[in-house]
Design a protein that fits this description.
Elements (H helix, E strand, L loop, with lengths): L6 H8 L6 H4 L2 E8 L3 H12 L4 E4 L11 E2 L6 E2 L4 E2 L6 H8 L5 E2 L12 E4 L8 H23 L7 H10 L5 H19 L21 E2 L5 H7 L4 E3 L4 E7 L2 E6 L3 E9 L3 H6 L3 E3 L4 H9 L1 E3 L1 E7 L11 E4 L9 E4 L1 H4 L3 E7 L1 H7 L3 H16 L8 E4 L12 E3 L7 H5 L8 E3 L12 H16 L16
Parallel strand pairs: 1-2, 1-12, 2-9, 7-16, 10-13, 12-21
Antiparallel strand pairs: 3-4, 5-8, 6-8, 10-11, 11-12, 14-20, 15-18, 15-19, 16-17, 17-18
Helix pairs in contact: 3-15, 5-6, 5-7, 6-7
């Protein structure tokens, strides 16, 4: 445990002569929350309801963080979070119902080979007939059974690639058959973790199971954060540069202002913490800094293409390409039900996502369209609109969501949220071990931070009153 100096002396170390103007705008609060994503607005809302004087300091000009809805085209396009992953027993489900937010069923589940209407295409871009598609799905389930046994005895240092190779080696299959399953596992880690199969821990997908239906938001996911943010003092366009802490309190400094408080909740994405763009004085203790270093931050980018008319089969959930042609673009999802426009959504994850972010928009669109034309030929028209995300390059995210990297454990997520000095609390999806990389995990982490600050349990149903707040 580091020696904790006095808070005022810490602040003196941080302020230069040119920053003295910050003192003029100094404000004192019970709690300062850094970040207006779902974790931040949840913590702030609950603390505000408990009578605390709370402020949220937000670098962006909007609430939501990685929950971001674009409505410029006249309909909603969720560029960040899109799904409630498993509605049964999910705290988001009751909130959405209480807030009367429209949803429609669109179950993705863990990245899967079947159970939904999926058009699969072989490496030569020919459709798999029902028997071939079933054989491929059965192959994956056969390997999955062996994989579970291998993972059960795996160490933290082993990767998902290690255990997948071991599981495949136990089966007397030809190279082509093994390659198709290996390819599926690589795409699974890219979609579920935003990382390459070599970078994900063997146990990284242990909890990647969804037992109930999933829903998406025709009107946009950000309705949720905007409602929860009602009545909260939020300072936009304030990028936090330093956080000084001691057992007597905290001070949060931006370029233009300082905020004193008894407690602070830091909800910036893991990518920002890993980059060290916020200076903590003193440094975070090893029990928190260690997990920040070990847990990975994935990149998982979306590409939406709006077409003048559909060219794919009616009733499809997804289109899947196999083989070398699927190295980057391998899955397309029909999301027309959200926009009421002919639209496909595809993804680029892990290193493919980072490589894609370096391309110009026109190059990305052309690459996706060429991949679709390999399947559907000249029936693929030019898109009339597109949306592309670059979460890895976003300075206020530096990635899409967390994952258990090789050398890390699921317990590292919760360890990251260990209270520091009794006054500093980290929250966000990366800090919640049972539901990382999800919106409801972020919400639950904000709830946990509020309970720790107040020293008492809080019924999450209190958040349902946010719809009537002004």
């Amino acid at each position: 445990m580091p020696i904790i100096p006095d808070i005022n002396s810490l602040h003196a170390q941080l302020i230069s002569t040119t920053m003295q103007r910050a003192i003029l705008s100094m404000s004192t609060f019970d709690t300062v929350v850094v970040g207006a994503g779902i974790a931040g607005v949840t913590a702030a809302n609950l603390l505000h309801r408990a009578g605390q004087r709370v402020v949220i300091v937000e670098a962006r000009d909007r609430v939501g963080g990685r929950t971001w809805t674009d409505r410029t085209a006249g309909f909603s396009v969720d560029l960040g979070a899109s799904w409630i992953h498993g509605i049964d027993g999910n705290p988001l489900t009751e909130l959405v119902r209480a807030f009367d937010i429209e949803t429609i069923e669109f179950t993705v589940g863990a990245f899967q080979p079947d159970s939904r209407p999926i058009a699969n295409y072989d490496p030569a871009h020919r459709p798999l007939d029902p028997a071939a598609a079933q054989q491929w799905a059965d192959d994956i389930r056969t390997v999955d059974e062996e994989l579970q046994r291998v993972v059960a005895s795996a160490t933290a240092e082993q990767t998902y690639a290690d255990v997948a190779e071991q599981a495949l080696a136990a089966l007397d299959w030809d190279a082509e058959r093994r390659e198709r399953v290996w390819e599926f596992y690589r795409h699974r880690t890219e979609e579920q973790c935003g990382a390459h199969i070599d970078d994900v821990a063997a146990h990284g997908l242990d909890e990647d199971v969804i037992f109930s239906d999933e829903v998406i938001f025709p009107g946009g996911y950000d309705h949720l954060t905007r409602i929860l943010a009602r009545g909260i003092d939020i300072r936009f366009n304030e990028t936090v540069e330093a956080v000084a802490w001691s057992e007597s309190g905290v001070r949060v400094d931006t370029a233009a202002a300082s905020f004193d408080a008894r407690d602070a909740v830091i909800t910036v994405p893991l990518g920002v913490l890993k980059a060290g763009t916020i200076q903590f004085v003193p440094d975070l203790p090893d029990e928190v800094a260690g997990p920040i270093e070990r847990v990975g931050m994935g990149v998982f980018d979306k590409v939406f293409l709006q077409f003048p008319q559909p060219f794919w089969q009616d009733g499809l959930y997804a289109i899947r390409q196999q083989g070398p042609a699927a190295d980057t673009w391998h899955s397309w999802y029909d999301v027309s039900a959200v926009s009421k426009q002919p639209m496909l959504l595809t993804f680029a994850g892990g290193q493919r996502g980072r490589d894609t972010e370096a391309m110009r928009d026109e190059q990305i669109v052309d690459s996706v369209v060429r991949s679709l034309k390999q399947i559907y030929g000249d029936s693929v028209p030019d898109p009339v609109n597109y949306w592309i995300t670059r979460w890895g390059a976003d300075p206020y995210a530096l990635g899409s969501y967390s994952y258990v990297a090789a050398g890390a454990t699921h317990e590292d997520h919760d360890a990251m949220a260990t209270p520091v000095g009794g006054v500093l609390h980290l929250a966000g999806e990366a800090t919640y071990s049972s539901e990382p990389a999800t919106v409801h995990g972020a919400l639950l982490s904000g709830h946990r931070a509020a309970e720790r600050i107040l020293g008492e349990s809080i019924d999450l149903k209190e958040l349902q009153d946010a719809a009537s707040s002004s």
